[in-house]
Design goal:
25% strand, 26% helix, binds thymidine-5'-diphosphate, Rossmann fold, 11 helices, binds magnesium ion, Ribosomal Protein S5, domain 2, 3 domains, alpha/beta, 21 strands
Length: 451
């Protein structure tokens, strides 16, 4: 095969250079030149076949053609399943369970009648086979190959002609026509491009595994997000079993659903009662704990928030937030001090969401603040109480979305009372609502202030 010409292109301005340079001639930026194959431009020079405008009513709806993956939680996040010809990037930290999830997925999809090819770039076929055995993913319609060379993968695809192909991982893809090292931005991008091209031409659903660095970016500076149709983020606390699957980009549906899975001996299992899971280790009657009915996507989740206020030996007291936003915690401490008369600014404050949960919902503000107040004064919140509301800088408690759904979940889990923002009109069955217009009022309703 003739070696393809490569060029170096600036990721900022798009200027081309035949050789690599530290600085782009076009825009003067440093370290922006990335090697890519020149072949694509050559192909573009001969006109591609033209498309034909059609009345919209005559065009098939791609999303409605989604096919179940056989893994319920993945289908939930994708809004039904995988669309033929689509490219999905599954990102997550090393060790979080991406290979496990996708191996289970090909097993389940094969069971549903799809032909699947699993391309492993990191593990030998023997290793993958033995894991697949434990996961129940061994099926005659699942093909397996250990391969990292892109042109070879294209050959395997032509041979197997799968409905679904998994490439684990995109960082191992390597095209010998590029001089850059495997794992470099150029290699990752060109590899993904090649897979995307194949997907569109053959209607194969492509799943690319991408390792995400600690800072949360996909190695290969987010270059892939533009190439793919869907980006799924798989995360969770590696030391806890719970795993969350979310779509951060999805061309075929909403990005609001969250999939909940638990890593067990035999792989990942759907979590049917997440609130029960989060509350299972709860010890009643301890100060510094509050139960918050959050919503993640459309899913209500009861999560325990804990805080510990300790005397500080430091000039700048320590603030630690785990599974909660650090800046939000700092703001809540300031509001507690200035609007509620509690002295916390000079103390070390630790706050966390129990069970490896990660809360981004502002409705958790009031719960975090009450947990801090409770730890400070030593008065625990009542066992049958949940707290919901966003805290404003004026110390007011603000209304939050999905209140009915949150409170219904609290009632289902056996809670009897809920502190809610003052403006709330909804009051569900089986739950007594205590309206608090301000955080100070919530503190007194929960009886966690200084006595
Ligand atoms: P893995 O899927 O290899 O992670 P990734 O591909 O994201 O790097 O899974 C990592 C961990 O999951 C591994 O350390 C062990 C654990 N695990 C289980 O607990 N049970 C199982 O059945 C499997 C397959 C893995
Ligand atoms: Mg892996």
């Amino acid at each position: 095969m003739a070696k393809m010409k490569t060029v170096h292109r600036c990721t900022e301005c798009g200027a081309e250079s035949p050789v690599w340079a530290g600085r782009c001639d076009g825009c003067g930026e440093w370290n922006t030149l990335v090697e890519e194959l020149d072949g694509r431009d050559a192909a573009a020079a001969t006109l591609p076949p033209s498309s034909e405008p059609l009345p919209m009513v005559d065009i098939a709806d791609d999303a409605s053609a989604a096919r179940s993956t056989g893994v319920g939680e993945v289908d939930r996040v994708l809004g039904g399943g995988l669309v033929a010809g689509s490219v999905t990037l599954v990102g997550g930290e090393p060790g979080i369970g991406k290979s496990t999830l996708l191996l289970q997925l090909v097993g389940a999809a094969a069971e549903e009648g799809s032909r699947c090819l699993y391309v492993s770039g990191e593990e030998s076929v023997g290793q993958v086979r033995s894991r697949a055995g434990r996961l129940g993913a061994v099926h005659p319609n699942v093909w397996l190959v250990a391969e990292t060379v892109v042109p070879h993968i294209r050959t395997h695809l032509d041979q197997v002609k799968p409905d679904i192909v998994v490439v684990d991982s995109v960082q191992t893809l390597h095209d010998p026509d590029l001089s850059s090292a495997p794992g470099s931005v150029s290699q990752v991008r060109e590899g993904a491009h090649s897979m995307a091209q194949y997907a569109k031409q053959h209607g194969t659903a492509v799943l690319l595994v991408g390792h995400v660095t600690k800072e949360g970016t996909l190695a290969g500076p987010r270059v892939l997000e533009h190439v793919v149709d869907t980006v799924l983020e798989f995360d969770g606390d590696r030391h806890h079993g719970l795993r969350l699957l979310r779509a951060s980009k999805h061309r075929f549906g909403p990005t609001t659903e969250v999939g909940l899975l638990q890593m067990e001996e035999a792989g990942l299992a759907a979590v049917h009662d997440p609130s029960g899971l989060f509350l299972s280790d709860r010890v009643a009657g301890v100060s510094g704990s509050a139960i918050v009915p959050t919503v993640d996507g459309n899913r209500p989740l009861l999560i325990e928030v804990q805080a510990l206020v300790a005397q500080s030996q430091l000039a700048n007291p320590r603030r630690s937030a785990q599974g909660l936003d650090q800046g939000r915690l700092a703001m809540l401490l300031a509001v507690l001090e200035r609007r509620c008369g509690l002295t916390v600014m000079g103390s070390d404050v630790y706050a966390l969401a129990v069970g490896g949960a990660r809360i981004t919902d502002p409705g958790a503000d009031a719960g975090v603040a009450l947990a801090v107040a409770s730890s400070l004064t030593g008065h625990p919140l009542a066992d049958d109480l949940v707290v919901v509301g966003e805290v404003g800088l004026g110390g007011e408690l603000r209304h939050v979305g999905h209140l009915a759904r949150r409170l219904k979940e609290a009632a289902r889990m056996g809670f009897r009372r809920a502190i809610v923002p003052g403006a709330t009109s909804e009051a569900p069955d089986g739950l007594e609502v205590l309206r608090a217009p301000t955080l100070a009022a919530a503190i007194s309703l929960a009886d966690v202030g200084a006595h």
